[in-house]
Each structure stands twice: as C-alpha cells, then as structure tokens.
Amino acid sequence: MMRKIKLAILISGRGSNMESLIRACADPDFPAEVTLVLSNKPDALGLEKAQKAGIKALALDQKAYTGRSEFEIALHNLLIENKIELVCLAGFMKILSPDFVRKWTDRILNIHPSLLPDYPGLNTYERALADRRAESGCTIHYVTAEMDAGPIILQHRVLVLPDDTPDRLAARILEQEHIAYPLALRLVAENLLKSAPAPA
Ligand code: GRF
Fold first, then answer.
1. Catalytic site residue 112?
2. C-alpha distances in angstroms, 113 versus 26, 123, 178, 184, 197?
3. What are phi and psi of 154, to 5 degrees?
4. What is the pLDDT of residue 1?
C-alpha cells in the first residue's frame, strides 16, 4: 500500500472543510490520511462529524490551559505523539504563536475566504461587497507568523453577483473551498512524499 502523509485537521466549528478533506482522503490513491481531528472548542459540531467518520477526534479545550503557550505545548505534543506530518487549519479560529508556527514551518496550511492578499482577517464577504469587487474567492496558503500572509498554494475565484449578500457570497465561496482545499492538500502531500522520509 502507498505511504500516506499523516494529517491533522484543526477546527473550531461546523467543520465543512474538514468533511471535504476527510472525503478526499478516503480515496485510496489520495496521498494523505486524516489521523487526527482537534478542536479548541469542545462543542464544535465538526468533532461529532469526525467521530462518525471513524476518525480520532479530540477537544483541546483552551479554557483548561492557563495560557496560549500551555495550550500550544499540549497541541504540539499531541501532534508529535500521533506522528503528524502536516496540519490543515479548517475554520480554526485561534491564532497560533510565531514560536509554534516556526516549529511547524511548511507543515501548516490554512484556508481563507478571500483572494489574499485582499481582506485578511474577519468579515471578508462584507468587505468585498462594500468595495464593490467584481470577484472574490478563497485562498489556501502556508501558515507563517503573520496572519493570513503566508505563501499562496491555490486560489479559486468566485464572481460577485449584483444581488449578493454576505451570506450568498459566503455560500458560493464555500462551495469552491470544498473543491480547492483537497486539491491544494494533494499538491502539498505529494511534494512531501517525494521529499520526506517516513517518520520513525
Ligand atoms: C470557512 O469559510 C473558512 O474559509 C474559514 O472559516 C470557515 C470554516 O467553515 N477559515 P467550516 O468550519 O469549514 O465549515
């Protein structure tokens, strides 16, 4: 059987991008497997969805830790224990510290609902509409210390329609997210397989 990159998906909420990654990884020819799903919110809907899909899914409740660095130590240890090689942030609403991100350089991907570098941060749909942009979309990028600013792997564009509301635009961008994230993951995982030996 082919070797697959061991993936962790970090979520905070409904986990629809997580589901699209789980679906892609179910293909025997896909170069990654979902080893672990982690949420920083114990009540994230996505946790239950991952468990139903038969995937180890845990909450790392940030409230149980005294601060960000304790939380990140626990997160780092869990990733190491599970021999994780790549991390996909999928609606993970917590900012990771530069220290943590440096430890996992080139090993963390994120999906963002705008065409970066336009509209980093929150309320991307409202801002694109307020600026009367003709198009918006989603970006999958490597995570670096600066928020929503790492090297771009893939973008999918979406036309903004005259009668768009933030919700309608968000729904059409989300459809593209579900297509684009597995494609980007495939690219990155294939490259990693070529360059990285299996972890001991
Ligand atoms: C997505 O729009 C993603 O781009 C953003 O947060 C949302 C998460 O949705 N980072 P879901 O939890 O994957 O359904």
1. yes
2. 25, 9, 11, 15, 33
3. -160, 145
4. 75
Question: How high is the pLDDT of residue 198?
Answer: 64
| 113 within ligand 1 shell (Cβ under 6 A) | yes
DSSP 56: -
pTM over the 0.85 mark: yes
Q: Which atom of ligand 1 is nearest to the CA of 19?
A: 13
Query: Residue 36 CB: number of other CB atoms within 10 A?
Result: 21
Q: Which two tokens stand for residue 43?
A: 């009540």
- Dist. CA 18 → ligand 1 center (Å): 9
Ligand 1 near 15 CB (within 6 A): yes
| Dist. CA 24–CA 18, nearest whole Å | 10
- Regarding the beta carbon of 137 and ligand 1, being less than 6 Å apart is answered no
Structure tokens of 108? Answer: 């963390």
Q: Indicate if ligand 1 lies below 6 Å from the C-beta of 45.
A: no
Q: Report DSSP state, residue 197.
A: P
* Contact (CB, 8 A) for 21 and 101: no
Q: Cα 187 to chain center, whole Å?
A: 14
Q: What pLDDT, on the 0 to 100 scale, is given for residue 62?
A: 85
Full DSSP string of 80-107 = HHTT--EEEESS--SPPPHHHHHHTTTS
92-96: Cβ within 8 A, 24+ apart: 92/10, 92/11, 92/12, 92/40, 93/12, 93/13, 93/40, 94/12, 94/40, 94/62, 95/147, 96/72, 96/143
